[in-house]
């Protein structure tokens, strides 16, 4: 898909804070983070919805990155979301949650995180992910 921003990230035409990559999937930090370590996992091939993805290893990639986030950032727990309304390229949201989240609601608000911090967070998760085999 020529104009799809996630396809552009896959092709290297747009930068990302990469946390994971294999043959078929790519993980990077959401640039509108709702938590430290808020990650998106996408198939490299363009699909409209997560349930359209034909490669059965999608969930495995999501779990791998979840484990890497858990090790790297030690959140209280981790949520998943799929909306698919903003960018029309299949993506899972992985949202780590910290401390008392009772006032945050199901989907926390967007946080301000500096580029330097985003870069550090991505490196930490990426590094942990290299040691995770499932
Ligand atoms: Zn796409």
UniProtKB/TrEMBL annotation:
Chain span(s) of sequence motif Histidine triad motif: 89-93
BP terms from Gene Ontology: nucleotide metabolic process
Active-site residues from the entry: 91 (tele-amp-histidine intermediate)
Xref: InterPro entries: Histidine_triad_HIT, HIT-like, HIT-like_sf
An example Gene Ontology molecular-function term: catalytic activity
Residues in HIT domain copies: 5-103
Protein name according to UniProt: HIT domain-containing protein
Species of provenance: Candidatus Roizmanbacteria bacterium RIFCSPHIGHO2_02_FULL_38_11
């Amino acid at each position: 898909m020529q104009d799809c921003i996630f396809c552009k990230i896959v092709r290297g035409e747009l930068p990302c804070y990469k946390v994971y990559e294999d043959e078929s999937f790519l993980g990077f930090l959401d640039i509108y983070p709702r938590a430290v370590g808020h990650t998106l996992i996408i198939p490299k091939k363009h699909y409209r919805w997560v349930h359209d993805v034909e490669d059965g290893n999608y969930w495995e990639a999501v779990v791998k990155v979840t484990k890497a986030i858990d090790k790297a950032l030690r959140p209280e727990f981790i949520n998943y979301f799929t909306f698919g309304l903003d960018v029309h390229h299949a993506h899972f949201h992985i949202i780590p949650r910290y401390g008392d989240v009772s006032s945050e609601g199901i989907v926390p608000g967007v946080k301000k995180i500096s580029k330097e911090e985003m870069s550090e967070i991505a490196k930490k998760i990426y590094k942990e992910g290299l040691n995770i085999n499932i």
